Amino acid sequence: xxxxxxLFSRLPIVAQLKKSMGLQRGxxxxxxxxxxxxxxxxxxxxxxxxxxxxxxxxxxxxxPSSAHLWGTTAGGYDVFSRTIWGTQxxxxxIVVAVALSxxxxxxxxxxxxxxxxxxxxxxxxxxxxxxxxxxxxxAMVMSxxxxxxxxxxxxxxxxAAISITVVFIPQYFRxxxxxxxxxxxxxxxxxxxxxxxxxxxxxxxxxxxxxxxTLPLIFTLNASEAILTLAGLGFLGFGIEPSSAAEWGYDLxxxxxxxxxxxxxxxxxxxxxxxxxxxxxxxxxxxxxxxNDPRLRGRxxxxxxxxRKKNKELVDA
Amino acid sequence: MTAMIDLPExxxxxxxxxxxxxxxxxxxxxLLIRFAxxxxxxxxxxxxxxxxxxxxxxxxxAALGGRLSSDQxxxxxxxxxxxxxxxxxxxxxxxxxxxxxxxxxISDNLAISDMLATYGTATLELAVNSLIVALAIGIPFGMLAxxxxxxxxxxxxxxxxxxxxxxxxxxxxxxxxxxxxxWLGWFPVAGRGNTSTEIxxxxxxxxxxxxxxxxxxxxxxxxxxxxAQHSVxxxxxxxxxxxxxxxxxxxxxxxxxxxxxxVEAGRSRxxxxxxxxxKHAYKPALIPIITVMGLQIALLLGGAVLxxxxxxxxGLGFQLAHYLTxxxxxxxxxxxxxxxxxVAVTNFIVDVIAALIDPRVRY
Lengths: 317, 363
Known about the structure:
A: mainly alpha; MetI-like fold; B: mainly alpha; 17 helices; globular; disordered N terminus
């Protein structure tokens, strides 16, 4: 199916964009644009925001004005600046969390799938137990164990990221393990064994490259989950302190009491930022997932009579 | 919140060909192994939380630190046994669990079983309410999206479903509060009932803890009306989160069934599309949804923590955040143990249903 094409057209997003059509293409493009804006805002935060993320003013709970575009919070923070700077915190946490969990999850998945036996069984039971439990609750316990309740910028980001990592590892582990087990039976692995390649080499070269093809999809979906978990942690007061970085979830926590007295601007803007970011990432991940799924299903049905025909239909759908 | 990912291995349970040939005798064995797996799951979670909580320091310093001298603190810690080797404490804890003795909370001296019963019913009430909202929105609109596949209605509903998922419960709660309690004044801002209802509920003998049920049983209609009003916003906030997922599930499954041979056969005989949807495709499409619904329990419980904090709904999630801040080991472990049991048992039931429906599941 994938014969020789240029490197560019095989890049994850570009490849899917070419395959897409109609509604799906619209959703994919919307996702790309929203995610692009999110990353751009994070990169340009120092230029875009009029004030620093932790700068405080004497006017508290001031409604939107020309000095404070989106008003100020009860703590005297500028809502507009904090919403902008929040993108940076979110990007940092996503990058650290997802990179860590991919790294650990892929290694464990390869080992577990390739070696098998008791190691495999123990890891699977462990991963399933963690996977089944509510993400946020585990992250709460983790974050309080790591940060012990107080945190500055970097330790806050790392404790949030590691808390998220722990609950994400099982997802990568499961996918990579399943793929590894499937690939282990493939002829090219067998021939590598026959040639005398070491287990490490087989895992690192032959299986790794083939097993990690689905990762970009999980990555985008996980990024949106990471943002929701970070915001949830911040909302419950287990995230990053407001005096060290701007974080949307924490701001929304304080906005709850403001909302009860009709002060809407402290909550609506950071909340909208979360929704738009997660929406963008989910649209991107979902459409990529949808576009890749037919191929996955097509491969499984290839052995049957009219596999080729069904495959075509699915791609068209 | 692991719900939006369709892992390649998690194929929806579909048709079951050659059921008898493959199933022969292996079902019992599968169920037995699957049942046995409940225990390691619970043990792992309880163990993780036990050691994680010990990393945070001890509850006595967290509660009394600063108010007592370090010598007095050390005495207190010694009396409570928190200075013993951690593995001694761990095995003592396991022994307690095995005998069903969970101890008492440190911060407010409640028996763990009472604490779980009181707050657990509040969480149960919230979960059931939100599930009703989620099903009432998810099933009809999911069917509509499947029926109008790739038309603009489908596009709108699908984007809405993702938007529901993308909105954190506490932000949805904030918007609902702003619009419906502050600006329109229809519903109260927070809590499970106003003061007079809470007093009436506390005076009941042998209450179930589920307020609307208790209010109905005692014939207190003002309290019932009050409880109902308080229930709406939390149920909608949490319900919308799951509604998006149900909508997508129903849509995918109905589309899958609508392209089945027997539906095709009906279509070729001139059965109307509407009738095909409501009479032929509807039920088979819902069976896999029941199993996936069970898997949403983790999402629901995680969302419940946020919803309860948003609306000051005094349930397990609200208390968990509170006890974590107070470093109340015993209470946190009790809550986590209960949640682990709920999650493990639900997953077991889901797997059993899936195995009964689809023999290919039994590996």
